[in-house]
Design brief:
The complex is a heterodimer of chains A (about 425) and B (about 425). Chain A has about 425 residues and is mainly alpha-helical. Among the domains of chain A are: about 45 residues, Winged helix-like DNA-binding domain superfamily/Winged helix DNA-binding domain (Arc Repressor Mutant, subunit A, Orthogonal Bundle), CATH 1.10.10; about 25 residues. Chain A has 22 helices and 3 strands. In chain A, strand 2 and strand 3 form a beta hairpin. The longest helix of chain A is centred in the last third of the chain and has 31 residues. The radius of gyration of chain A is 30 Å and the shape is flat. Chain B is mainly alpha-helical and about 425 residues long. Chain B is built from 23 helices and 3 strands. A 3-stranded antiparallel sheet of chain B has the order 1-3-2. Chain B is elongated and about 90 Å long. Chain B starts with a helix and ends with a helix. The chains are: A mainly alpha (about 425), B mainly alpha (about 425). The interface between A and B is large, with 57 and 86 residues. Strand 2 of chain A pairs parallel with strand 1 of chain B, so a sheet runs across the interface.
Chain lengths: ~425, ~425
């Protein structure tokens, strides 16, 4: 949130979310935005009272500057009701299990999972949802199970998931399912969780605006636009970016919902790196990006650098630095790293601060490579020939008994083997 | 039967070229020779190595077990007697008794080492190795002895000559009396000799051959070879040695945990920080010193610096000495300058230093592959590769007609056909 945002904007922002995610977003705003803290906390506490998540309620009330006093009586009564309901659900499940009806067992597990999720115990909820896996009979069941698993940790967007969940989910999503929008969304999120930005970007751009509010418990449509744009920047090259993002009408309408993200993509696409980087810098302070940055910023400027240099034979590093809005020295280091990793075919004239494109000497390179390949071939083939001969002659080193040659004591030999070490 | 009679028999049968008969006779007389040890010295001068190799091998074998290495006089006599045989022996006769001959050679080498004159044993042993070989591609235990003696004499070029002369790819237990252990030590010594000559990539090759040999147990030589292989590989390529898939399981398991000092050294090298590398070396100094690897380990520091500087030449056309020092994590520009000068002198990189400005100008590598030398090297490499491919073809042809192989393949084919039928009936 940029600091100037008024509270009305917060309300419209928050309206895009529901359930636990909404609470968490509000809590995040309260933590990072002093001017909106009281308002955010008030809404959050109200929201929390409608649910049964007493732990979060207490946490919210305990936050500094909370305008609402804690209602202990309410907490007690909810706790009592919750434990009674837990007992009932568990006994239900047990009776279903004895009756061996698959569908009932699935429902039982699912209900138990819903209960834990509403209480804020997502680890247990996840366990319950994953248990339903064995009792799924149709693909719709499987899909609802996957959805439940993704929804279960609504911390998705603020904290990395427990590592086991994406791996749990992904094998099942691959099955054909009736709801294409949801599937694309699911795949994108799982890929994002696994830090596979390229796959995530592909899936995000497949999501269309029709997603609407069906997924508001986890994220809003504009979030999809933002994540999609960022993942695309991190993973796609220029051609792919233009084809899949800029010219993709479905995703463009999505981007319209998040103008900042749209600006960044267009800046990048039309090579206005400085404004692109500056916009990214402001975005990074936003809550929802807390999960994305770890590797995205590392790869993004690299893409930009490679793309910037591609049409030139020689580039003045100072001008390049001003285009990227960075120091010349740090730019030089970054480019040197890129050259060493083989991304840019160029060499730096550090004295004159000029980057020269390198004309690869194909002939020389071919000679060097041919010689190296020949040598490797000879080395490996000889080793294999020797090995074949050894195996044919049954020439393996066995126990100490047969390894000693004629009249040589192996111990003496070992001592001498040591003695040569200084060579 | 007395020794005089024995000499007569040797003379007569050798003259008649009835070596098989002589061999049987000598084998029956081994006991007697050992009983009459003191007189053997008097008999030997009467025999000529070219004609009476078989007899000499038996007599010297009998002596070899008994010569005390502490008695200088006895050792000298033994060396003299052996020299004649090793330098002039007849290949046909010698190859009839490979293990006896190998024993004599081993004792000869030990004797030369005992009087601190390993260099004197070098030439006789080199010749003996050739005499014992059924073909130039065969291993013999004597080859191992040659390398050992060459190493002890610190005469690395002699070892290199033996290694470069031909590729030893064949083993024949009966014909040469070679044991798996000889092979391990041969490759281990070969690696050491290459380290001594600073031919580290060759050293890696030999050490790898040593520790990847087929084995059921972990042999001390293999462990030592792996340790040195790590160091040589860091020096040659800057990376850990690539372990071939076929490395025996016990070895794979052992080196995963058994050599922590070397694994840590390689990890420190991978961080590209000389300070970390130095601290890793200091931490395990005792281990390296015990394994006699401290010298190689210390060379790694220099190799790391050179590697960093060389990678800079890829990225930069000009770079100040101060920046080089910073990038390679050296202490001062002066130190960087020293390294650059040494590397240019060694032909590692091509660069010029602008002293007043403190700038280094790197130029691309000079070798344009347009000299007769380059063509010759290329041709040598091609013909080498063709040679190896021919060997491979020959072995393939040989295996294709191998009765054991064929019968096995046929059996498998028949079996699989049965299984197919079973499947078909099931359907």
């Amino acid at each position: 949130m940029s600091s100037s945002r008024p509270s009305s904007e917060m309300e419209s922002y928050i309206a895009a979310y529901a359930g636990h995610t909404r609470l968490k977003r509000l809590q995040f705003i309260a933590q990072h935005e002093p001017t909106l803290r009281a308002e955010a906390l008030r809404i959050a506490v109200e929201q929390a009272r409608q649910g049964v998540n007493t732990a979060l309620y207490q946490e919210l009330c305990a936050t500094e500057g909370c305008p609402v006093a804690r209602d202990d009586a309410w907490v007690d009564s909810v706790e009592k009701k919750a434990s009674a309901r837990l007992d009932k659900l568990e006994s239900d499940l047990a009776s279903h299990k004895t009756s061996l009806v698959k569908e009932s067992i699935r429902m039982g597990h699912s209900d138990l999972g819903d209960f834990h999720a509403s209480r804020g115990d997502f680890a247990t909820a996840l366990k319950c949802y994953v248990r339903t896996r064995d009792y799924c009979t149709t693909s719709r069941h499987t899909l609802s199970m996957c959805l439940a698993v993704v929804k279960a940790p609504p911390t998705t967007l603020l904290h990395p998931l427990p590592p086991q969940s994406p791996s749990n989910v992904s094998p099942f999503i691959s099955k054909p399912s009736p709801d294409a929008v949801l599937t694309a969304q699911l795949r994108a999120l799982t890929a994002l969780e696994a830090k596979k930005f390229r796959a995530a970007a592909r899936k995000f751009v497949e999501v269309s605006v029709e997603l609407g509010t069906t997924f508001s418990e986890v994220c809003s449509v504009s979030d999809v636009a933002l994540y999609g744009a960022l993942c695309a920047l991190a993973a796609f090259d220029r051609a792919e970016l233009s084809e899949r993002v800029v010219k993709n009408s479905a995703f463009r309408s999505m981007l319209e919902l998040y103008p900042e993200a749209r600006e960044i993509v267009h800046d990048f696409h039309s090579s206005r790196y400085a404004s692109c980087l500056a916009a990214l810098e402001t975005l990074r302070r936003d809550a929802s990006l807390a999960n994305v940055p770890p590797s995205a910023p590392a790869t993004r400027p690299r893409h930009a650098l490679v793309q910037y240099f591609s049409p030139f034979v020689a580039v003045d590093l100072c001008r390049m630095a001003s285009a990227f809005n960075v120091e010349v020295d740090s730019l030089e280091k970054e480019i040197a790293a890129l050259i060493m990793s083989g991304c840019i075919p160029a060499r730096i004239d550090s004295q004159a601060k000029v980057l020269h494109a390198r004309h690869a000497d194909q002939r020389n390179a071919t000679f060097v490579k041919a010689l190296a390949t020949g040598e490797a071939y000879m080395r490996d083939t000889k080793a294999l020939l020797l090995r074949l001969n050894l195996l044919r002659a049954d020439f393996a080193v066995k126990g100490s008994g047969d390894s000693s040659g004629p009249s040589k004591s192996s111990r003496q030999e070992r001592a001498e083997a040591r003695a040569f070490g200084g060579a | 039967m007395s020794l005089a009679d024995l000499v007569t028999v040797i003379n007569d049968l050798s003259a008649a070229s009835q070596f098989n008969q002589l061999l049987t006779h000598l084998q029956s007389q081994e006991e007697m020779m050992i009983q009459q040890l003191p007189q053997l010295d008097e008999v030997l001068p009467a025999l000529r190595p070219m004609e009476h190799s078989l007899g000499m091998v038996f007599i010297l074998k009998a002596k070899a077990a008994a010569v005390p290495l502490s008695n200088l006089q006895a050792v000298h006599t033994f060396l003299q007697q052996c020299r004649r045989l090793l330098l002039e022996g007849d290949p046909v006769q010698v190859q009839m008794v490979p293990s006896h001959f190998a024993t004599v050679c081993a004792k000869f080498a030990n004797a030369a080492v005992a009087i601190a004159a390993p260099a004197a044993a070098l030439r006789p042993l080199q010749h003996a190795a050739q005499v014992l070989q059924p073909s130039p591609a065969h291993f013999t235990p004597v080859h191992t002895e040659v390398l050992r003696v060459a190493l002890l004499a610190r005469h690395y070029p002699a070892a290199a000559r033996l290694l470069d002369a031909s590729d030893l790819l064949e083993v024949a237990k009966e014909k040469t009396g070679v044991a798996p252990r000889d092979l391990l030590l041969y490759h281990y010594y070969a690696g050491l000799a290459c380290c001594g000559l600073h031919r580290f990539s060759d050293a890696v090759r030999y050490f790898t051959l040593c520790y990847t040999a087929p084995t059921h147990v972990v042999h001390a030589a293999m462990v030592e070879a792996y340790k040195k292989c790590v160091l040589a590989s860091l020096l040659a390529t800057g990376e850990q040695p690539a372990q071939p898939k076929y490395t025996a399981l016990p070895i794979q398991r052992y080196i995963k945990t058994g050599v922590p000092a070397y694994s840590e050294l390689a990890e420190a090298f991978a961080t590209r920080s000389p300070a970390e590398l130095r601290s890793a070396i200091t931490k395990h100094e005792a281990t390296f010193a015990r394994d006699r690897n401290l010298g190689l380990a210390r060379q790694c520091v220099g190799a790391l610096v050179r590697r960093s500087i060389r990678s800079l030449t890829q990225a930069y056309l000009t770079l100040s000495l101060a920046d080089i020092a910073a990038a390679a994590q050296l202490e001062s520009p002066a130190e960087a300058e020293g390294h650059v000068v040494a590397m240019v002198a060694a032909g590692d990189i091509s660069a010029t230093i602008d002293e007043p400005q403190g700038m280094v100008h790197f130029s691309e590598s000079a070798d344009a592959f347009d000299s007769p030398g380059a063509v010759a090297a290329m041709e040598a490499s091609i013909s080498g590769a063709i040679g190896v491919a021919t060997k491979l073809q020959a072995m393939h042809a040989q295996l294709c007609t191998d009765s054991q192989y064929l019968s096995r393949v046929m059996r498998e084919r028949v079996q699989s056909r049965w299984e197919d039928d079973g499947m078909g009936m099931g359907k």
